Amino acid sequence: MNMACQSSDELEVLVKEARTYTKNGKVADYIPALGKANPNDLSIAIYYPDGRCISAGDIEEKITLQSISKVISLALVLMDRGQDYVFDRVGMEPTGDPFNSIIKLETIAPGKPLNPMINAGALVVTHMIKGNSVEERFQRLLSFVREMINDPTITYNEEVARSEFETAYLNRALCYFIKQHNIIEEDVEQLMDLYTKQCAIEMNCLDLSRIGMVFAMDGVDPQSGKQIMPVDVARICKTFMVTCGMYNASGEHAIKIGVPAKSGVSGGIMGTVSGKYGIGIFGPALDEKGNSSGGIKLLELLSAKYKLSLF
Ligand code: GLN
Question: In the chain, how many domains are there?
Fold first, then answer.
């Protein structure tokens, strides 16, 4: 279990300023269970390699990972299968399209998604998680998340998983399209079961910031000294966070913020500042591209104040 976070006056000032931007956004409701979130919520935690943590806002609020889980499943699959196998089946290029778009599956490389951060690519990645059953594959992914957070109690939100499973017609369409091209082999309902559980893995901002810290430390948990994932895998994941982590707002994010980050439609953002710390943000009101309105502003203010841009 992780230590409690120290509340920070400096972060509180940034949260206060960014909170006005939550009004510009809207909570996602295409997954019905996510529609219950409070659009005014906004919180942040920063986790340092020495175990210190600072926060502002209501960091105990729980979030499901949604698309943030795509980075974690990618790391696991790169370890399971190696780079050649993975990148034969999913590409490395940003799309400039919304995260759930189907169009380039037909027009660019038939059946092979352009990158692992869009839904089509993430479905292929989840398909590649090794194990004999959905349950075993999910437990492997969950154990990996628990190891990064150093908390064996992390689990998934069954209501959110079920809600997405019952309504994910577009994701099923992506799967069938890809299956036609023989990149996905398994039964689509089985894959949707695994994918919706993956997206519903639940935690608070503090936990999210600890995952960001492990990526920041090139895959090492500095407290146990354990290399949780190889350096190369952490590097590949961070690169995807820069090029594709904020969907079709990734270019603007690189220019205005310059911090490798991954967002999800629950309103979470996981950021990673190499060698320094991990960032976990939660603000469920989303902008038109599906990124947290207040969360993006908060990250922008943080990056400007502490000169965090990579560039
Ligand atoms: N579970 C969501 C979906 O597939 C994840 C998308 C997201 O967070 N952008 O639609």
Answer: 2
